[in-house]
Amino acid sequence: MEIKGFAFSAVEAAIKKPGRLDLALIMSEVPAAVAAVFTTNRVKAAPVLLSMERVTNGVARAMVVNSGNANACTGSQGMADARETARLVAERAGVAEELVLVASTGVIGKPLPMERIRPAVPGLFETAAVTDLDGLARSIMTTDTFPKVASSTSEAEGVRYTIAGVAKGAGMIMPNMATMLSFVVTDAAVDPAYLDMVFRNAVDSSFNIISIDGDTSTNDTALVMANGMAANPTIQAGTPEADRFEKLLREVLLSLARQIVRDGEGATKFVEIRVTGALSDADAKKAAMAIANSLLVKTAFFGQDANWGRILAAVGYSGAEIDQDLVALSFDNVLMVRNGVFVGGDAEARGTEVLRKNEFSVTVDLALAGGSATVYTSDLSHDYVSINADYRT
Asked: How far apart are CA 31 and CA 310, in angstroms?
């Protein structure tokens, strides 16, 4: 897979502990159009604040990212460290400092170990540090158990281009936006205003329809850079090329989002939640997210308990319009509830068999109108508690 004009590198800076890559760089040969979405948490990490400021320019050359330390709740020193990290990269690359964005992930409340980051930055520009997307994805992992990478290709007026991305995230996953880092690059030429609009739409239909534990972190960043080096005619809104680009971008982001759910901390189940028959799509999403975020539902999934009552209860408090006498509920193709009541017979046993699988779906039909939504979630296991009880150590 070739993504023209982008280079990726990673080095070990021993930011939290030695023995792994934890400082990475994405570099474009030329200025790239950039768009990004950040955490909605009112407590924002220093790199988020700095990148939010710089991304408004609509152009970037580089993103430098570290794992092991969130640089969050670190006051004025944290902002100074974020700026210095960007400046070190800018000076080495010979680009304007404002064209370098920053991101961090890891433990909250500890200053960045700049005494280890400063000497590590030059290594990002050495041949030995050059890596591919898989290496980049590995360098930003924290509690992740595997690197998350997705890519696809298409054409614009006969010119081939690629969209590719990486993500990290396994815990503190909750939409608006989902808690994670994701960096997407494309060598397509894309109108900056259209890129911003289409990226936000793609985030809404990917990272904003997943949930692992209902927590939103301080460092969420999803970003796309388009450098135009495929030399295609610029993709503009309202064209067939724009429709293809949007579809491809959404597919790449949705693949990354689904990988995050599969890698949920301690997760043993990957669950697709579908709500149909709602008064509106927004109502359907309210109901689906209430199911996805319910701790009682998630623990029932882990215990392989076909406890449909917990699911209906979640729909009932979701805020979505509901007539309980119309509701139907299924696990995969096993109907459990019709017109708001248990169907009886061997449905319990067959539903339990569905929940014993690693992947299954839950479908709730509200039978009111045509609104629908699909979200993705995981179960909640003993291991989730163990992982997060010991996270800082």
From this structure: 51
Backbone angles phi, psi at 341, to 5 degrees: -130, 155
pLDDT at 261: 86
Element (H, E) at 219: none
Angstrom distance (rounded) from CA 256 to CA 249: 11
Question: CA-to-CA distance for 68 and 58, rounded, in angstroms?
Answer: 28
Give the pair of three-digit tokens for residue 214. 């209902």
> What's the confidence (pLDDT) of residue 265?
64
CB count within 10 Å of CB 238 equals 8
Note the pLDDT of residue 291: 96
Q: Which helix (H) or strand (E) holds 127?
A: none
| Nearest one of 215, 204, 203 to 285, comparing CA atoms | 204
Q: Is 218 a catalytic residue?
A: no
Residue owning tokens 């295609």: 232
Q: What is the pLDDT of residue 315?
A: 98
pTM comes to: 0.88
Phi, psi for 346 (deg, rounded to 5): -95, 20
- Of the candidates 136, 137, 67, 66, the one whose C-alpha atom is nearest the C-alpha of residue 102 is 66
329 pairs with which residues across the strands? 337, 364
pLDDT at 177: 46
The pLDDT value recorded for residue 178 is: 42
In this structure, how many other beta carbons lie within 10 angstroms of the beta carbon of residue 304? 17
Q: Among the options 39, 85, 131, 179, which is catalytic?
A: 179
Query: What per-residue confidence (pLDDT) applies to 17?
Result: 87
- Give the rounded distance of the alpha carbon of 212 from its chain centre: 11
Question: What is the domain class of 6-262 according to CATH?
Answer: alpha beta
Strand bridging mode 181-186 / 221-226:
parallel
Q: Which residue has the tokens 């030059």?
A: 122
Boundaries of every domain in the chain: 6-262, 270-389
User: Distance between CA 318 and CA 167 in Å, rounded?
Assistant: 29
For 216, the token pair is 């939103």
- Tell how strand 334-338 and strand 328-331 pair up: antiparallel
**Non-local CB neighbours of 92 within 8 Å, separated by 6+ positions:** 121, 122, 124, 125
270-389 fold: Ubiquitin-like (UB roll) (3.10.20)
pLDDT mean by block of 10 residues, the chain; 393 residues: 92 92 96 93 92 96 95 96 98 97 92 97 94 92 86 95 89 50 96 97 91 70 96 96 96 93 77 97 96 92 94 97 97 98 96 96 98 92 58 49
